[in-house]
Amino acid sequence: MEFKFQHIFILLSVALVGSHAVVFSPDDYWRSVLPSSPMPKSVKDLLNPEFMENKGTAVGVGKGGVVVGAPTKSGKPVYVGVKPGADPFSYIYAAEENQIHEDPNVALFFLEKDLYKGNNMKLHFFKSSDDQASFLPRQVADSIPFSSEKFPQILDRFLVNPSSEKAEIMKKTIQECEEKGIKGEEKYCATSLESMVDFSTSKMGRKVEAVSTETEKETPLQMYKIVGVKKLSEKKAVVCHKVKYPYAIFYCHKTETTESYKVAMVGDDGTKVKAVAVCHKDTAAWNPKHLAFQVLKVKPGTVPVCHFLPEDHIVWVPKY
Question: Any idea what DSSP says for residue 85?
């Protein structure tokens, strides 16, 4: 079952002064905070056209609350990630029994020793979420409950059946956001682009750049040759993973034991990829049954574990 929220409406009960509230677009906020840092394509793809075209008057507020069209966009299909199993980018969870055989993220994990020019790797680049939910302006996102305590109200607002798979996925996303991070990890779930920018700059400063994997086109699992490797950061980075929800939410975490790389590749079919890879130097606190250990057949804390990022994930690194 695909996780898509089309043809629904978000009913927001908010208390705002006046009959209309000015909602500034997320891209305006990006430019104001990060004027010298280009917005990556993965972020641009999540900006809602309606909010972009009607800056300042996107949301009408009346006595009954706010009604906003659901922020989903049509377009070409994307590959489905794990549903609703253990998130491979959250390090406290054990992989489910069938995950190693069915999860497309399996192909993204590798060992640091394999990251060198000329090496060939069998990979499958895809978007981690099969929905195309876009960002809500922060003023709107902040007015929507996002907690296990208020989960019944959330389902009611999104017109989701409590016994449906959609409800189960939404519940799991909220629970993962509420879980404590592993030792040495600072985590945060950003419910808007503005809040993701604020979290990342609070940890990294404003001299940062955001990078993400970019592919020329979608391709099946195939061999890729590494034609270039460039280190982006040493130890310090914030990585943000898109999670499944009716609107764009990113699970972000910062560690001091992460190195990130930009990796240029060419596939067997000629497809060029500008991939982003993250290597975790210390995995001692990860769940011993995490998907990475099962795929790579290594134990926690023994060797650096690396993975390429799906197209809709973002790495924030210092800008030199």
Answer: S
CA distances to 78, 114, 189, 256 from 241, in Å = 16, 23, 9, 17
Can you tell me the distance from the alpha carbon of 184 to that of 186, in angstroms, rounded to the nearest whole number?
A: 7
User: Contact 156/170 with Cβ under 8 angstroms?
Assistant: no
Q: What residues have CB less than 8 Å from 257, skipping those under 6 apart?
A: 184, 235, 280, 281, 282
Residues facing 119 on adjacent strands:
none
Number of other residues whose CB lies within 10 A of the CB of residue 272: 14
Residue type for position 131: D
Burial class (CB in 10 A: 0-12, 13-18, 19+), 138: buried
pLDDT at residue 50 in the model: 63
> What are the phi and psi torsion angles at 229 (to 5°)?
-135, 130
Rounded Cα distance, 133 and 155, in Å = 16
Burial status of residue 96 (CB atoms within 10 A of its CB: 0-12, 13-18, 19 or more): middle
The Cα-based distances of 310 to 51, 109, 116, 270 in angstroms read: 26, 11, 20, 19
Question: How far is residue 97's CA from residue 112's CA, in Å, rounded to a whole number?
Answer: 26
Helix H or strand E segment including 27: helix 26-33
Alpha-helical segments (H) within 158-279: 165-178, 193-204
Query: 282: buried, middle or exposed (CB in 10 Å: 19+, 13-18, 0-12)?
Result: middle
Query: What global pTM score does this model have?
Result: 0.80
Q: Do residues 253 and 239 touch, judged by C-beta distance below 8 A? A: yes
Render pLDDT for 194-245 as a digit per residue (tens, 0 to 9): 999 999 999 999 999 999 999 988 778 899 999 999 999 877 899 999 999 9
- Say how far apart CA 306 and CA 258 lie, in whole Å: 9
Overall size of the chain counted in residues: 320
